What does this fold into?
Amino acid sequence: MRLSVIFSRRIGVAWWVALCLSPVWAQSPAPIKLALIEGLSGPFGNTGEAVVRNIAWAVERVNARGGVKTVLGMQTLVLERYDSKGQSEEALSALKSAIDDGAQVVLQGNSSANAAALIDAINKHNEREPAKRVLFLNYSAVDPALTNEKCSFWHFRFDAHADMRMTALMTVLREDKKVQSVYLIGQDYSFGQAVLREAKRQLADKRPDVKVVGDELHPMGRVKDFLPYAVKIKASGAQAVITGNWGNDLTLLVKSAREAGYEGKFYTFYGNALGAPAALGDAGVDRVIAVADWMPNVPGRASEAFYQSFRQRFAKPSEDYVHVRMQLMVEAWVQAVEKAGSTEPVAVALALEKARVSMAGQTGFMRAEDHQFQQPLVVGLMQRQGAVGVPFDVEGSGYGFKVVQQIKAEQARLPSSCKMVRPQGT
It folds into this structure.
């Protein structure tokens, strides 16, 4: 009897050891936390929620294929949202919360001022606490300084910066000889100032015959009625407006321009989404030009399939806001983690510097010297849906953008003044 008990106990111990070591019962590695710090409320809350959908869709696709392969096994991703309310102080508070919650990756983009504050804070944090370092993936903050004099080893930008976007716009404006006068208007913060500064520089270089008849900055996110601005634009006689406005500041501006009877053109950074086409209506046809890394009407089966896939996932017209660059950003980071074999920020950063990714017929790569992503750009002209080259509209508005210029990554590339400070040993 005693021998039987001992034998049974040995069998039980062996079974328990086998059970613990079995892959079926082994504990899965913890998911990787991605912290999205963005203005999800306030005047630009709609742009923040649009970003959430893009990043969430990218995360869903990664998890659908099992997650990210590291030395710990397949790790899924978890996207955690932190509302900065569009304010730098709130963004810094959110950064602290994200780090305390265990995030090693921070994503942000809808404010260059907030991005600059985050870069500075992350630089200091990573130096002070090397065991809790984080990387910063930037999908939309396009002040050129962020990958020039303010460049950081921990920061990677996946959008073309303002000077690159302006160069693309100028490829169209340079040929538009009917435009002899322009009005410059933008949001009064680092990005808006950079846009107007570069517009003046490039006009002087590429269209010295064009007269600047207005040069104005307005408070960001605080103007409720743009009609006084629209009246000034019309009175100036400007044949075109150049603006980097985004979100409600753009929608309200173009809506007021229509109400004021302004008939000039709009050369924009973001006129192809978030209510702007619907606000302009027929008044925008053949008159609103926008630049982007990609648009739904980019020719090609891969591009079309990508867009239709997004619209199947987010079917409401109000959710129609998708960017290839945000998908490429997540895929580039996943590629870097898998090459590094872990989420350790230094190892991932070194791999991310060499990332090259493709999607929707678009290919981009990270430039190691300044961490500025290099990718093609397109310029589109607002048209009615159904016109040649416009199979897709924007947000159910009945208006879309015909691609009139495609710029290769090599053509969009600009030099950098970055003097990268790297961690010791890298």
Notes: The radius of gyration is 24 Å. The domain at 163-292+376-411 is CATH 3.40.50.2300 (Rossmann fold). The longest helix spans residues 2-21.
